[in-house]
Amino acid sequence: MSALLNSLTEAELALVRETEPDRLAMLDEDDLVELHTRIRRARTKYVGLYRREASAKVAEYGGRGKSRPKNQRNAAKAEVFEEALARVSRSLSVAARRSATELKAERIAAARAERNTTPPRTTRPKAAPAKAQRASTRPDSPALRKRHASTRAVGARRQVRKDSK
């Protein structure tokens, strides 16, 4: 591995060094996205070079796999950048998750601050129609209690789904 790192150009080596854990820890989410893009381009470059050179040698060697030993450097460089890309991807996912958690906490705090905390006004209810009054005089019917419980349970499940996101 060190022999391959020594064969990288200065720019490529600098790009790989940017993926060291100490340096990744100092980057914010936007910087990680930019680094991810640059490393992905370098990886794609060497994967493409490997495939093009290998396909050009198919006639000579009889297959792209058989020409691999002659094209080992491009394949190894592609692998180095693939590993670097994996490191940056992991850091980026951690940063994105952290950012999403912070944003969610800010939104919840803002929603709580905006919540109406004044007590409701007490007004006398208007007289209900005769049919509605009859239904309200029988609140202990089992069917009505079951329907109310079901409605409350549906609302509670919906709230749990919202809160867990």
Please provide a written account of the structure.
The protein is mainly alpha-helical and 165 residues long. The protein has two domains: 1-115; 129-165. Helices cover 76% and strands 0% of the residues. The protein has eight helices and no strands. The radius of gyration is 32 Å and the shape is elongated. The two termini are 43 Å apart. The mean pLDDT is 83.
Features:
165 residues; mainly alpha; 8 helices; elongated
The main sheet comes to: none
Weakly predicted, low-confidence segments = none
> Which percent range describes the beta-strand content?
under 5%
Average pLDDT for all residues: 83
Describe the structure in brief:
This protein is an all-alpha fold and 165 residues long.
List the helices and strands and how they pair.
Elements: H1 2-7, H2 10-17, H3 21-26, H4 29-56, H5 58-61, H6 72-114, H7 130-136, H8 142-164
Region (Disordered): 107-165
Biased composition (Low complexity): 116-138
